[in-house]
Amino acid sequence: MEMTSQAILPCTLVVPCYNEELRFREDAFSAFLAAEPDVTLLFVNDGSRDGTLARLQAFCAAHAGRCDVLDVQPNGGKGEAVRRGMLHALLTAANGSLVGFWDADLATPLDAYDDFRLILETLPEIEMVFGSRIQLLGRHVSRNPMRHYAGRVFATTVSVVLGLPIYDSQCGAKVFRVSGVLREVMARPFVSRWIFDVEVLARFLAVWRAGSVHPETRIYELPLKVWIDVPGSKVHFSDFVRSFTDLIKIRGSFPPGHGPKGR
Question: Which GO biological process entries does UniProt record here (predicted)?
Answer without folding.
Answer: protein N-linked glycosylation
